[in-house]
Design a protein that fits this description.
about 250 residues; alpha+beta; 6-stranded mixed beta sheet; 4-stranded antiparallel beta sheet; globular
Length: about 250
């Protein structure tokens, strides 16, 4: 499932509320404009580059973050995100794998996920609460996979919190009109391998190295949401956990 950061969701919620019965319709464009500007301002703030260790909750989740850094782990300067984050633990970046000429790094971050005050106008509290919970979770730290050298137009997952990684949500990316695409992600300590079964063909297997897996999955020819089942396996082959993951396929 593709993960997106929360400000875009905040704009959508604000647009729905501003155009609804909660505010006069004539005020909607002004309110939405203020929300969009506030979100843009928040996301365009340059992040702090930190050379201290990543938060303990993230380091205890992934053993790769405790591995001593090597020269290969240095994230290229051009790949360091400049917007959309408030903190980047650049010294804790680690190279996870190289697949098809693309290097995949893990980078501990705090995403700019807070819901700006201007976006809260007219939005029901029941819709704001999950966004604010997500913002608080992001503020405690998240892990971003940074693909370096990926072909232009290939997507990448948004930052995943500790809870999201434990929820077993892989990033599945269809490639153009192809009926297959990469599936990759982070898994916690103790997961040695996994399988992902989709709507077409038998499940595929992937070995976990440095808490990272990469494989290729097939999709059904029809567009729309398709269900994948992921199983985490221990080194003994025992099933640790099973997850059902819907993935949008266009």
């Amino acid at each position: 499932m593709l993960r997106v950061r929360q400000p875009a969701v905040a704009i959508a919620l604000s647009a729905a509320a501003l155009g609804g019965a909660t505010l006069a319709h004539a005020d909607a464009p002004l309110g939405l404009s203020r929300c969009a500007k506030a979100t843009e301002r928040e996301e365009s703030t340059r992040p702090r580059l930190l050379h201290s260790p990543a938060p303990a909750a993230l380091r205890s989740l992934l053993g790769v973050l405790e591995r001593p850094a090597t020269a290969a782990d240095a994230l290229p300067h051009s790949a360091i995100p400049r917007v959309g984050f408030t903190k980047l633990w650049v010294a804790s970046a680690r190279l996870l794998a190289t697949e098809g000429g693309t290097r995949y790094f893990v980078l501990p971050v705090v995403a700019a996920a807070a819901v700006p005050r201007a976006c809260k106008v007219g939005v029901p509290a029941s819709e704001l609460r999950p966004l604010e919970r997500a913002a608080r979770a992001q503020a405690r730290g998240a892990l971003s996979i940074v693909p370096v050298g990926a072909p232009e137009g290939v997507g990448a997952p948004g930052p995943a919190t500790r809870a999201e990684i434990l929820a077993g949500d892989p990033f599945i990316a269809p490639q153009g009109t192809s009926h297959s695409g990469p599936a990759y992600g982070l898994v916690p300590n103790g997961v040695a391998s996994l399988t992902i079964g989709g709507p077409v063909g038998p499940p595929v297997s992937a070995t976990v190295t440095d808490d990272f897996f990469y494989t290729t999955v097939r999709f059904a020819a029809k567009a729309g949401e398709q269900r994948f089942t992921t199983r985490w396996l221990a080194a003994s082959g025992a099933v640790i956990k099973t997850f059902a993951t819907p993935a949008p396929v266009s």
